[in-house]
């Protein structure tokens, strides 16, 4: 492969860095998977991910909402219930998450060899 | 989608967490892209990624080698030159990196809207 100039290399790196900024870190992808798999309420999501604290979950949900990946709705009933669902934009991450899942399976096989 | 039991949810989450452990964080993917794009020597890789310190690059290269994603070779000439190249296992990440690149482009368009 031809060696790229610094500027061209940055053109490849920037979108990947954007993706890492939005979904990188230890928790965001795991929270998105939990919501995708049918956990919509705060306590459900919290219980589905081991070692995730209430404070961290709360902060991460706000970040995911800011990035338009999930939406938060509040029911009118009593008690009031808040539900988190994936937005259409959030759903565009499914292919990437599947790719991460498949590579994780492959890597574990490779390392165990 | 049917709500999954906690155990089943973990089956989906574990491989994704494995992937994040291996290539997550701020630098590893960027270092892999730099090597994929033709930078094979330490200083070349260092110069191709803004704000990456020598110490961090050195540590991350060791991690990538431990995970069998890159290999390190030392030339016999003088001065001795060390070169980093992607292993066959490292090359299996290309599809995932392309997916991260494409999603980053899509997300930037969405957020600018």
UniProtKB/TrEMBL annotation, chains A, B:
The lineage of its organism: Bacteria, Pseudomonadati, Bacteroidota, Sphingobacteriia, Sphingobacteriales. The keyword Transcription applies. The keyword Transcription applies. InterPro entries: HTH_HxlR, WH-like_DNA-bd_sf, WH_DNA-bd_sf. Coiled coil: none annotated. This is Helix-turn-helix transcriptional regulator. It comes from Sphingobacterium arenae. Residues 14-112 form the HTH hxlR-type domain. Keywords: DNA-binding, Transcription, Transcription regulation. Pfam families: HxlR (PF01638).
